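Priority: medium. Attachment 1 of 2:
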């Protein structure tokens, strides 16, 4: 899960991070920043969403974090994500 914010609303990242760039299904690049010790993805930027930053919801210590509102890549999702299917949200192929 991810939460997207305007970059202007995100405080500067402090500490060490490693970066990995990959090409998305759209052909655009996505740049991931992750913890160099545990390998956990912390945030990323997508070429297709300029001025936005995605933060991995698992990085928030907030058990009441809002549930997802939409789902992408429905056709290629893993079978074990079926519990997410019970949530009411917009679906994108």
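Attachment 2 of 2:
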């Amino acid at each position: 899960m991810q939460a997207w914010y305007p970059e202007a609303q995100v405080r500067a990242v402090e500490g060490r991070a490693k970066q990995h760039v990959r090409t998305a299904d759209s052909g655009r690049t996505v740049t991931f920043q992750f913890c160099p010790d545990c390998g956990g993805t912390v945030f990323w930027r997508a070429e297709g969403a300029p001025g936005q930053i995605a933060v991995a919801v698992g990085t928030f210590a907030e058990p009441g974090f809002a549930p997802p509102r939409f789902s992408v890549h429905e056709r290629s999702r893993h079978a074990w994500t079926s519990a997410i299917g019970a949530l009411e949200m917009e679906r994108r192929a």
